[in-house]
Amino acid sequence: MSQALALAEQARLICPPNPAVGCVLVGADGQVIGQGHTQPTGQAHAEVMALRDAQARGHATAGATAYVTLEPCAHQGRTGPCADALIEAGVRKVVASLQDPNPRVAGQGLARLQAAGVEVEVGPGAEVARELNIGFFSRMTRGRPWVRMKVAASLDGRTALPNGASQWITSDAARADGHAWRARACAVLTGIGTVLRDDPRLDVRLPSATRQPMLVIADSQWRTPLAARLWQVPGRRVCIVGASADAGREQALRERGADVLQQPAAEGRIDLSALLVELARREVNEVHVEAGAQLNAALWRAGLVDELLLYQAPRLLGEGAPLAALGPFAELAQGPQLEYIGVDRIGPDLRIRARVTGR
Ligand SMILES: NC(=O)C1=CN([C@@H]2O[C@H](COP(=O)(O)OP(=O)(O)OC[C@H]3O[C@@H](n4cnc5c(N)ncnc54)[C@H](OP(=O)(O)O)[C@@H]3O)[C@@H](O)[C@H]2O)C=CC1
Ligand SMILES: Nc1c(N[C@@H]2O[C@H](COP(=O)(O)O)[C@@H](O)[C@H]2O)[nH]c(=O)[nH]c1=O
Hints:
Converts 2,5-diamino-6-(ribosylamino)-4(3h)-pyrimidinone 5'-phosphate into 5-amino-6-(ribosylamino)-2,4(1h,3h)-pyrimidinedione 5'-phosphate. There is one protein chain. The chain has 359 residues and is of the alpha/beta class. It contains eleven helices and 16 strands. Strand 9, helix 9 and strand 10 form a beta-alpha-beta unit. It is elongated. 41% of the residues are buried. The model has no long low-confidence stretch (mean pLDDT 96). Bound molecules: NADPH dihydro-nicotinamide-adenine-dinucleotide phosphate and the ligand Nc1c(N[C@@H]2O[C@H](COP(=O)(O)O)[C@@H](O)[C@H]2O)[nH]c(=O)[nH]c1=O. Residues 152, 166-170, 174-175, 178, 194, 198, 200-203, 290, 311 line the site of ligand AOF.
């Protein structure tokens, strides 16, 4: 199963919105006879890739055991049912890490395998398999994406100087690592404040990049400039989320190539909870937030942040913008409570990962 999980890890950047799944086929003699992982949307799933691999290597699949990191599907989606492919190949046993979290299909693949006389075991590798697909699980079980907020800060927690300057607080190495986290998301979310101040690209600039996450800009008044650098990323979808009735401006953004999304607003501010539901409807699994203190605070206040990805540089900036413009709180317990899930050194900086307690 650990080999299947390593294959799933390889799939993570290419297969969203599909879950990243790995599959290893072990022949009756205990040798690995085939392996595969999920391909980009619309192409073969892990099980079919592993069966094809075994066939290409001249191995018979009858009597084999399949180790797969998610329940094989039983439905005809963009590809055919994997449970049927395993049954037709004569597989004797299927070991799956997890049941499919999609409430419409959960358990159906396992039931079909069992009905065909295939032995089924569920559980090995469950924790790692779920982590690999945390966004897919979030979308399926909560109807909204997993929200990971990335912040680059100084040791005293500042994210920009009082005049707005913030480039660059962290090192090249930390920024490259940040790109790898952008790459695994389906969408990067920012605020119009950051767009106007930084003129960012917010794309993935890694040689290994195979797809660009959609850029989503919270911009109630349609203020995104038509000549910004964010338009210079070939093939990347830009979604501007606003609430103003200025049809002329909305049309100009549409003509510039944006997907323009009118969202309900309260006191002129976009309803971020409704926005996340809409992004899930568009098959966004993970949202990578890179925004300023205003939008960050609104996301925290609405209880929408699941995870913090904080790069901390060993420098002090004194006065300046915080990670999120929260508070002032009267009691310590009023602030969001997180737990650390990882601390790593990235070049001269620290990368701190923390998750909201209970998520
Ligand atoms: N160090 C770091 O990691 C980062 C630092 N920065 C820095 O942050 C600064 C910009 O911060 P800031 O001005 O706070 O910009 P934000 O990116 O937080 O954008 C804020 C704007 O988003 C719009 N918005 C839309 N919906 C909402 C909502 N529901 N709640 C709140 N805002 C909403 C508002 O404008 P409107 O009402 O017009 O829609 C608001 O003014 C810059 O100096 C930049 O360099 C930025 C990103 C990362
Ligand atoms: N200042 C700062 C960051 N800032 C974030 O990076 C954005 C610019 O992205 P791009 O135009 O794609 O290079 C900027 O607008 C802000 O969201 N990131 C970091 O890793 N370290 C830093 O010190």
